Amino acid sequence: MTAPVILRAPVLLDGSRLNRRVTVSPHMCGGSSSIFAQLGDWTWETVSAACGTNVYDARTADGLPAYLSFYYFHVRGSTETHPHGLTFGDELSVTSRVFDFGGESVLTLHRLTRADAAPEALDPVEFYERPRADSLYVQNFNRWISRGRPDSNEALVRSSPPDFRHDHLPVLPERYSPRAIASRARKNASFHPDGIPGYVVGEELTCDYDLDVVHDFNGVGLLYFASYFSIIDTALLRLWRELGRGDREFLARRILDHKLGYFGNADFGARLSIGVRLWRRAGVPGDEIADVTVREARSGRLLAVSAIHLLREQA
Amino acid sequence: MTAPVILRAPVLLDGSRLNRRVTVSPHMCGGSSSIFAQLGDWTWETVSAACGTNVYDARTADGLPAYLSFYYFHVRGSTETHPHGLTFGDELSVTSRVFDFGGESVLTLHRLTRADAAPEALDPVEFYERPRADSLYVQNFNRWISRGRPDSNEALVRSSPPDFRHDHLPVLPERYSPRAIASRARKNASFHPDGIPGYVVGEELTCDYDLDVVHDFNGVGLLYFASYFSIIDTALLRLWRELGRGDREFLARRILDHKLGYFGNADFGARLSIGVRLWRRAGVPGDEIADVTVREARSGRLLAVSAIHLLREQA
Q1: Which of A115, B65, B211, B231 has the most crowded CB, counting CB atoms within 10 A?
Q2: What number of other Cβ atoms are within 10 A of residue B197's Cβ?
């Protein structure tokens, strides 16, 4: 007969770390990109609290709106704990930590653990080298940008709000920096330009996607970072159906690793061209990696690159 | 140089009222149904806190999952404050209050006000008869349901968790009860079966909509209540475009009033048939009411009825 303890505020543990206890709500889960949208909000909230900047309402020195845009998003799950495996009512402990990347960028790590697990410090070594099977890890690398032209989402330029404090943040060991990974993916239009050891190329599909005014834009008219996840999922689902696979199996897929680099934005009415290449692990049915490119169809401009390591549920 | 105060917990003012200070985040706004999803989460959180039930993980006396499903959703806005007018960075004060409707239903009111407005008690008279132009009001009428068959979303039956406490809640004056409004809308398949005084029938459109596995289902595989908003918006946008109106004008529409009754759910793979009839206010260009029905195409089963009073931005 006791009410659940849900009226909780996140706790700032020190100048770079935040902890929250979370009851997963319908808005955070489901088939769509809600969990990624929620993770993005936690990143903005953590950076706001740690860096003295109101990320939701930031301005450049010239008074123009500045956005802490997503440049690289990396999710690490396990067969036990993965982003589409959350359902409402799940109790989580979320630890978030912000790392210094200078005045124009910032990196945030999140660890989501079932709430009955003992809370521990979040060390980057754990995230990158010793992930726990009961935890979901997320790395967000964000850059400050503003619109180069007020009426366009195509010409975005780097810029930073003057009150953004970062010198006090811990520094991530150089070997964990996502800069090289993201810029190689951008240059090669793939996270796996040279193939994937142990995997063989399977099916491919290229399809068009018309940006959806109802779903895909955020509150300031930019193509929403979380929509890139659902746009890619829409293309992956088309390939899935072409292979004769069912919708329930799509929703039950387990995401072990998901990398997404954001290299461009787009305007209302744009048509995208999405390429999906499915790699299959030799000798391990159901272990697949989807290698995805998102381009503006008209110009061929690269908007995003993604690699999704998934396990199909065997029927 | 001061960090924004965003690490806030909602405050339970007494056994039926909750107040929260909110910085609107990207996940709460945008063109999609995010604001409605957020409002729904606030309803569940408020009912959980007020009624001693973990709404996110509720069970019937038989141990089956029980869902506090949305039956009637009513939004009241103004030209100044409306659901698509929120953008991230907006600071809101949200007051929520729960009212007794017996053991199987519950009614929740929310008032969203710019945070610099003085907080005041939330009286139903204000909500129904004296709404303030600087506030957005939302009424949610919810019913406890569970699945009649484990593998289907079609046969949902009423049922309530045994720990749901409601006797201590205030009672809403009978004249404000939404029961009659919702059941008439269900019976007539319209909130306006006899026409709308001062308005004349304009364009109509009927279109199909295939339920979208990527966007439309919640974490337990039910068609998500907030998706009904975006599904209806998708149909309204088609009519909008047939009338030669642009996407930016669609996103800039102001919603003065939005009623939505939920009378059925649907399964993966279902095709819907959506009817939209646009009423135009005589002599007042841009003042329109969209009268909408959502049916399962195969069976004709009524899933939802909506009425949206909107103002177009005059170019």
Answers
A1: B231
A2: 7
